[in-house]
Amino acid sequence: MCNRSLLTVFIVCLTLFCKGQELIYMPYFDQIGLKKDIQYSVTNLLKTYIQDNKKYRVVIPARNDSNAITADQEERVIEYAKGINAKYYLLGSLTRLGEMVVVRVSLYETANKTEVWTDRLKASSPEDLDPIIQRIAVNLGTANSASANADIYGVTKYESKELKKADPNFYFGAAISGFIPFNDISKDPVAGLNGIWSYDARNIILDIRGYYYFNKTTDIYGVTFDVLYPFSSASKTFYANGGLAIGGTTLGYRAQSVNYGYNYNSSSTAGGFLLSGGGGYILNRTSAAQLRLSGNIVHGFYKVLDKTTTGFVFKLEFLFK
């Protein structure tokens, strides 16, 4: 008697839990150019993510059913959806183009075949499918488009305006730059060049750069380690950055000979650590060719002729994968 009572309570609780959850029938995704296992795994994964949101219940065909329905058999899909009283049916497709996989998902009302929600996204490789499936599940049946709700994780809108892969990217490049002193370390602006190695880890960007600024009387040089924090995952975004450099400064000056009284050119050199901080703007972050504009305040912790290397650095950077 006790066991029957517990079973009754369980059934009542399950009924209350499922009440309000609309039923979706989802056949296996149609697929072109991919292994059949991906067809099964993507369909099952989407079912799991959809049901995690507790808005829908999803029914899919049994994998071992020799007559299992796929998304390209729409009339059979509708017939089966009506048979299980599913309010909706969902059709999906996976199309491989080289390494990229285009995912299309559409949700229909069973009663009248009306499309109520659809979206299309593109993964840079089959390994990038999981975050796409998660995004589709979160936005399914809402007023939102999955491709419009981009994040840093691994996928891209079909129009390729967001970050493409979960994998980080490496870039190499160069910069045209300038140094405007805040003190009398130099009377004139100092032009400069930079060589850059960049590691885009998605949430942050790590740069190692060699720099050299120069004019007739001043040379500033060294290696800096910068951390960039992008404000969004969009192709165009502002960022903040800070860095630590190990470098040196050489200042030229006119000296006078004590013994002979004539003037001659001389120089003095010192080196140490420098800190920098500022920000900038990235153009085409998702592209193989990237452009950055930046400005930073730099302060050195060493002195040359009793002068610190302090000023404003601006850079125009060109980076390539």
Describe the structure.
Helix content is 17%, strand content 50%. The chain is an alpha+beta fold and 321 residues long. The chain has 2 domains: 19-157, TolB, N-terminal domain (Rossmann fold, 3-Layer(aba) Sandwich), CATH 3.40.50.10070; 169-320, Porin (Beta Barrel), CATH 2.40.160.20. The radius of gyration is 31 Å and the shape is rod-shaped. The model is unreliable at 7-19 and 150-161 (pLDDT under 50).
Question: Concise description?
Answer:
The chain is α+β, with helices and mostly antiparallel strands and 321 residues long.
List key phrases describing it.
eight-stranded antiparallel barrel, 2 domains, 321 residues, seven-stranded mixed beta sheet, alpha+beta, Porin, Rossmann fold, 17% helix, rod-shaped
Architecture of the largest domain in CATH?
A: Beta Barrel
Count of β-strands: 15
Note the quaternary state here. Answer: single chain
User: SSE string, helix = H, strand = E?
Assistant: HEEHEHEEEHEEEEEEEEE
User: Which residues sit in consecutive blocks of at least 5 with pLDDT less than 50?
Assistant: 7-19, 150-161
Q: Which strand order spans the largest sheet, edge to edge or round the barrel? A: 8-9-10-11-12-13-14-15
> In total, how many domains does the architecture comprise?
2
Quote the beta fraction.
over 45%
Counted by DSSP, the helix tally is 4
